[in-house]
Design goal:
The complex is a heterodimer of chains A (113) and B (117). Chain A is 0% helix and 57% strand. Chain A contains no helices and 11 strands. In chain A, the strands form 2 sheets. In chain A, strands 2, 4, 5, 6, 9, 10 and 11 form a 7-stranded mixed sheet that branches. Chain A is globular. By secondary structure, chain B is mainly beta. Chain B has no helices and 11 strands. In chain B, a hairpin with a 2-residue loop joins strand 6 and strand 7. Classes of the chains: A mainly beta (113), B mainly beta (117). The interface between A and B is medium-sized, with 31 and 27 residues.
């Protein structure tokens, strides 16, 4: 059983839809992350949260909106996405922000049609 | 410009032989390196890491070698097993004091390893 769980595992949405990806970590970690994995590209860091506060936003378009209500939960709200946003979205956590080893969830496959 | 490069997109090895996965980096500020393993439809799982103060770290069948002068690291799997078939990602970190980019692991594109029985 993974310590980081993501739902849904698969999502198909239209460009005008609003949907959300959910991540929950059961590891007691203080830092959480959203990564994007597109085909043939390296993993890209999107957002970083530490103790529920956003500490980094790597120039991500505003159609992606993160939310971290507590240190165990992280959401990625999606609105008016484009087909090129179709990718695997990975949530991850680490004990603290300075901790180099991070642990990933299984990912949410997003297809924008 | 990629700071972490895995130039071989795929590698095929016979069961029982050695698998060598390579990774090159360009940023001399990187001081911590990790390997992640990813099966289809799963997130990456941490495999092994090495700090820049070392040149070798071993964990069971997995050994990571770091050559700082060449900015090169490699992952050796001996002996290779069919269950090792996966995509392997190399990642690097410059630590929290570099560039203000905390928690940012820079990943390579991955190498798909196939171990044939």
């Amino acid at each position: 059983e993974t310590g980081v769980t993501q739902t849904p595992r698969h999502l198909v949405m239209g460009m005008t839809n609003k949907k959300s990806l959910k991540c929950e970590q059961h590891l007691g970690h203080n830092a959480m992350y959203w990564y994007k994995q597109s085909a043939k590209k390296p993993l890209e860091l999107m957002f970083v949260y530490s103790l529920e506060e956003r500490v980094e936003n790597n120039s991500v378009p505003s159609r992606f909106s993160p939310e971290c209500p507590n240190s165990s939960h992280l959401f990625l709200h999606l609105h008016t996405l484009q087909p090129e946003d179709s990718a695997l979205y990975l949530c991850a956590s680490s004990q603290d922000l300075g901790e180099n080893t991070i642990y990933f969830g299984e990912g949410s496959w997003l297809t924008v049609v | 410009d990629q700071q972490v490069k895995q130039n071989s997109p795929s590698l095929s090895v016979q069961e029982g032989r050695i698998s060598i996965l390579n990774c090159d980096y360009t940023n001399s500020m990187f001081d911590y390196f990790l390997w992640y393993k990813k099966y289809p439809a799963e997130g990456p799982t941490f495999l092994i890491s090495i700090s820049s103060i070392k040149d070798k770290n071993e964990d069971g069948r997995f050994t990571v070698f770091l050559n700082k002068s060449a900015k090169h690291l490699s992952l050796h799997i001996v002996p290779s097993q069919p269950g090792d078939s996966a995509v392997y990602f190399c990642a690097a970190s410059a630590g929290e004091n570099y560039g203000g980019s905390q928690g940012n692991l820079i990943f390579g594109k991955g190498t798909k390893l196939s171990v044939k029985p």
